[in-house]
Amino acid sequence: MSQPRVYIHEVVTRDGFQMERVFIPTPAKIDLINRLSRCGFAKIEVTSFTSPKAIPMLRDAELVMGGIERVPGVVYTVLVPNLRGAERALDVGADEMNLVMSVSESHNRSNLKMGREASFEALSKVIAFAGRRVPITISLSCSFGCPMEGTVPIAEVLGWAGRFIGLGVSGITLCDTTGMAHPAQVALLAQAALTLNRSPEFEWTMHFHNTRGMGLANTLSAVQQGIVRFDSAMGGLGGCPYAPGATGNICTEDTVHMLEAMGLDTGVRLDGLLTLARELPALVGHEVPGQLIKAGRITDLHPMEHLS
Ligand code: COA
Ligand code: ZN
């Protein structure tokens, strides 16, 4: 019998890089994406077509999206906040658009400079404009809690998800923007999500940040409920500059290592990914939170004399 399949979306060059202080040169971004493309990811979130003033690190979105080699089978998706972003993304032939809004009014105002209803209106227009040309997914920020408002009720999250599903989007990503989710909460929201839309073609994705060390526990909880798609960032980089206290995404190589050890098939070639992950500190100029590059895999055994 084949192993259960889990799909990993690598977001290091978007979520991972967007809060880095020192600009990562465009050729280095392109080279990294080209090498990530050979690691077996289902999707790569390449960049974001946001305002260059809001996210200066990703001001080279056109150059990056236009400069990469596309490997068949990999979906090259991009984050888009508004109609202007959608036009830019279509111009360079993005495979998919990941539109973003927050289920928290406060976070939506700080991140996107408008209220949630205004965002829904604006994104509805983007879907009407671009939805016939590319699949559209929606990332709902703060789905597991907001650093300014606290708890967000499940009914609120599902309400927004349901409205977007009504507009024909191909998937919804439930984002734990500042690592407030815990495994019991994840199980409840995963069950509720899968009850709202159980179609096998519909893509529910979970997007966890490891801010409080619960990221892999949350991933496991979601897998146990039947969620099969996860965003993660190599090295555990990441975070939203407009969410107080945001830190890194769950680390891709740590996540893949855990899921594969449990007998799940992620499609990701861990050897190639680890080679890239080991080069990441030099690229960003600091240590990264990922643990596997420090500890090695559980199958990497040590000679006995080193254990004394
Ligand atoms: N791409 C490029 N430029 C854009 C743009 C886009 N998608 N959207 C707006 N702009 C530019 C405008 O042209 C304008 O430029 P100008 O000052 O030179 O005239 C400027 O940005 C302000 O435009 P405005 O429509 O008033 O936007 P805003 O200041 O209200 O910002 C967003 C709204 C959504 C565009 C901006 O806050 C943003 O890009 N946020 C991204 C948030 C994000 O990615 N967070 C992390 C991931 S969740
Ligand atoms: Zn994120």
Describe the structure.
- This protein is of the alpha/beta class and 308 residues long.
- The protein has one domain (7-306): Aldolase class I (TIM Barrel).
- The protein contains twelve helices and eight strands.
- The protein has an eight-stranded parallel β-barrel with strand order 1-2-3-4-5-6-7-8, surrounded by seven helices.
- Helix 3 links the parallel strand 2 (43-48) and strand 3.
- The longest helix is centred in the middle third of the chain and has 15 residues, at 116-130.
- The relative contact order is 0.15.
Task: Give Rg in angstroms.
Answer: 18 Å
**Total number of domains:** 1
Hetero compounds? coenzyme A, zinc ion
Strand content: 5-15%
Would you tell me the structural class of the helices and strands? alpha/beta
Low-confidence stretches: none
Provide the residue-averaged pLDDT: 97
Distance between the termini: 42 Å
**DSSP summary: helix tally:** 12
Biggest beta sheet summary = 8 strands, parallel, barrel
Q: CATH class, please?
A: Alpha Beta
Report the helical percentage: 25-40%
CATH superfamily: Aldolase class I
List the keywords.
308 residues; alpha/beta; TIM Barrel; 8-stranded parallel β-barrel; globular; binds coenzyme A; binds zinc ion
Overview in brief:
The protein has 308 residues and is an alpha/beta fold. The protein has helices at residues 12-16, 26-36, 61-67, 83-91, 105-112, 116-130, 154-166, 183-196, 215-225, 252-261, 270-284, 292-295, and strands at 7-10, 43-48, 75-80, 96-102, 136-141, 171-176, 203-208, 229-232.
